[in-house]
Target: Prenyltransferase alpha-alpha toroid domain-containing protein
Amino acid sequence: MLIFFHISGLDLINSLDELSDERKCKIIDSIYEHQLHPKNDSDLNDGKFGFTCHRSAIGRDEYQFDYCNISLTYCALTSLIILGDRLDRVNRQAIIRGIRLHQQNDGR
Model:
């Protein structure tokens, strides 16, 4: 998510206030459009839910070729926090489950 570098850069130089509240809301909505959601609890076993880099997540019911990854999920969550979002729309259960499924037995 390229937007992460723009947002964190503005924050780093104390210029985040250059973005209007309306613009921040649009960016937040755009980030949430990249979140993949499971259709049901059995989908959680796939471990492919979180945030993706492309907008193919929008309006899709089938995720055969869509996968999130930890890096993109981190960038999305960090961007949302920097922008002041309360993370109410984050599917925490799916993200936590996905990370656990990708973690190796030794914790790596």
About this structure: The chain has a mean pLDDT of 84. The chain has four helices and no strands. The chain has one domain: 2-102.
